[in-house]
Amino acid sequence: MLFGVKVNIIIMLPNHLLMLTSAFKKLVGASTEFDTYTLLRLQAKSYRLIKNAVSETLHQYKLSVLDWSLLGILFQKPEGSRFVEISTTMGVEPPFVTELITTLKKKGFVKIESDSEDRRAKCILLSKKSTELIPIIEKEIKETLSHLLKDVSSSDFRGYTATMEKMLSNLDKKN
Asked: How many domains does the chain have?
């Protein structure tokens, strides 16, 4: 019910996206439906708005959104990560991660060491510069995004992130 009126949302996905349909039905209720063009438009528009807002802040530090994502992965794992782990977490191919890491290493944001468990493998770690800068940049980005999140409750935001994580998990299970 919305303002005392029963609202039906229509889910119309192509047959090859049955798992996505099923996931949405579980998330929002079995009788709830939606249209894909609205879903995709909202996702694309919100991505562009967030990316553009964040890019302005990151540009000051000569970082891209992808650089920031990679640094965030390493920040959450202080013991470091292997190339393949980063690739899996980001959902990109290992050669692309190698390219990102090479650039970040040249800029002094990361360092590459031999893995303590397997000397053949390389472990990517944050540099001292990164560990000091990340909290500062994170605060600036949160301030930048605060106007976008002004009327979004913490519960709504958690639901938004949980929905994205579940969708990605469902796609991982399918592949």
From this structure: 2
